[in-house]
Amino acid sequence: MIKFFRHIRKQLLTENPPAGSRMAGKFSKYLLYAIGEIVLVVIGILIALSINNWNEERKTRKIEKRILEELVENLEFNTDRLEQWVIQNRRHNRSSEIIAKTLENKLPYNDSLGRHFGWATTMRRSELLSEVGYESLKNVGLEIVQNKQLKKYIVLLFERNYKEIKSKIEQLNPLINELLNVRQKRFIRLQGFNFKPLDYPNLLIDIQFQSYMASLKEERGWFNRSLEDSLQETQKVLQLVKEELNN
């Protein structure tokens, strides 16, 4: 490209010699030549900078794509985990309702109550949500994500929503430990996940136990609402990341 410009400049100097005396002509010719050289150098620098900037931008976009793909895997994993938590908690609360009605109405014991006693007295010690993809993003730098709105949603999900879930899990841990003691004192585990009361007639009039079960159901419902909110937000951000990758 620069050779092309130099060729044009030579032609101009040859075809249009400067007027005036020999000295003035030589000076004009050298001046025109110097200006031409400066222009060519500037053009060369600008072209080199443009190519370099283009290459850097291409590398940055490759890194962004890799990070977003990692985030998709991370969010899909969390979606599956949250869905399982929600399903399990709903099942456990349905069993809590069955046990509550059975004890309230003082119905006779039957073997089908075994699994409901097991689930009603269960609060899963949940594992934390994965943040692998988000940690990769933070290590590279949040500014790698061009879409500012997407970046905002990603940060809110991991820094606010997931941290709230972690905090609630920590709050529930003492309750889970206490629940294990309650089950150990009042039940014997049969085959599978069936738990039979050691003294069912006494359980029918055990107000403390029934109150504890009602409280546990409320705590489980409270936690499940948080899980459902997190699931909805995770699915939303996952969809936005996928759309960004397809653009």
Describe, in plain words, how this protein is organized in 3D.
By secondary structure, the protein is mainly α. It has two domains: 2-49; 66-246, no CATH class. It has helices spanning 2-15, 22-104, 113-120, 132-140, 148-186, 200-204, 207-246, and strands spanning 187-189, 195-197. The chain has a two-stranded antiparallel sheet. The two termini are 34 Å apart.
What is the residue-averaged pLDDT?
Answer: 85
Q: Provide the number of structural domains.
A: 2
Rg of Cα set: 36 Å
Strand order of the largest sheet: 1-2
H/E series: HHHHHEEHH
Unreliable stretches, pLDDT < 50, 5 or more residues? none
Quote the distance from N terminus to C terminus: 34 Å
Strand content: under 5%
Helix content: over 70%
Q: Please give the largest β-sheet.
A: 2 strands, antiparallel
Q: What is the count of helical runs?
A: 7
The class by helix and strand makeup works out as mainly alpha
Shape: rod-shaped
SSE blueprint:
Blueprint: H1 2-15, H2 22-104, H3 113-120, H4 132-140, H5 148-186, E1 187-189, E2 195-197, H6 200-204, H7 207-246
Helix pairs in contact: 1-2, 2-3, 2-4, 2-7, 5-7
Quick rundown:
This protein has seven helices and two strands. The protein is an all-alpha fold and 247 residues long. It has two domains: 2-49; 66-246, no CATH class.
Properties at a glance:
mainly alpha; 2 domains; two-stranded antiparallel sheet; 80% helix; 7 helices; 247 residues
